[in-house]
Amino acid sequence: MGRVGRVALDRASQGDRVYALKAPGRHQLSSAMFAGFTATYGITLHGLLVVLSLLAYVVASHAFNQRRHPTAAIAWVFFILLVPYVALPAFLVFGSRKQPRPLLIAGPGPASSSAPWAIRAITALGQPAPASYRDLVVHADGREALEALWRVIDAAEVSIDICTFIIGRDAVGEAVLARLVAKARAGVRVRLMVDGMGRLMSRRPDLSPLVDAGGRVTVFVPPLRLPIRARANLRDHRKMVIVDAERAGHRAWSGGRNLASEYFEGAPGKAPWIDLTFDIGGDLVQQFATLFERDWAYGSGERVAPTPRVRATLVDAQAHCCAQLVASGPDEVDDTIQTLLVTGAYQAEQRIVLVTPYFVPDSALLAALCMAARRGVGVDLLVPAKSNHPMSDIARRRAMRTLAVAGGRIWLAPHMLHAKLAVFDDLVALSGSANVDSRSLFLNYELMAAFHDRGDVARFADWFERELSTASRYEARRPGWITDIAEGLVLWAGFQL
Question: Considering the entire predicted model, what is its pTM?
Fold first, then answer.
């Protein structure tokens, strides 16, 4: 082979080597194809999932009338945009805010224009008309509340219906169950409804003895039951004990106390929580009984046919002892308690009293309270200096500073305060289970009794004054930037918790 031939062969060999270095192998080709597929279709799939998740959010919100707080709505949208594969299942499990239920009774007609504003507002929200009551007992402390509870249960001859968030696995919880077991064995119809989350929080009390004795038990929305539904984040926070609803001697026990030791006697070495409950007789008990029937039907899955009732005639709050139940929650069209508190803040002329363990109001309620303080209404808020929920204590700081700057007086109780009370002038007192926070006002099933008799309104105001005597005045301080950011994050993330 000549020189020219050898040079050509060498160049061809070098070209083969260069090609061998540049040409992709089989595994390199596969990796390149996978990367191209991911770049082309992966983002598209993510975007498609985002669109489908947002569509599910919008459709469900519209179909089920899920009017959310703006903070919660923004949080859900951002959650879906960032991680839709996590957000969509979370929304399907926890995203529901309203669960419409058929009404068992017709609402009252419009109130007379001469009726006090509270009656007109409550009836306009579709709540029952005022009913008469008798023998109201406002419990001064846990000991009186427990004695009243025993009296109410022991007096039952026909039926006992109990709705509670927590029944403790402790001395009080066991004593309640023992009395219920004895009544069931004596032939009294006993029904006990406990919230699913509350049952977990109270370490799963043993309810089987009551069932064995003939009593009936239902767990309201068990959070771990399959299939998991969107109502898993909804909680029945109402507290009521109704006895002999079918008879003239019926009586109800209600308020903020759960059936556990810390609400009555405390634990060894621990003082009892300060709370507020009452017991009552008269026609108002029928409103408790009707609400319990509705909750029982929903919690147990039993079908209860709507019972037509004659619309109740409004009574004159100035001439009679009358009160109304105000139920709030996913089963109501409106956020009734929140709306009533906002209305009361704008209607009040002299004084507003609020007692709550957790003060995290929405912007509308906070603005109404601040406006009341600015226009000269005495606004007094009593909260525990330190509650049992540290996150709530962080979340409340902005609202407390805002109200204090507007002229509201904020008082810190030295002990754990679990009571719920609102008093507007001397016209209406609201007592029951609702806290002044977003979960109670927008998510939970709650219950407040609105008392219109001026003498009884004064009795609730006197209870507040006794608790105020041991409280210290809150002084607002400007937060540091780290504290301010932390408060904002807790408020942003904590609405659904």
Answer: 0.80
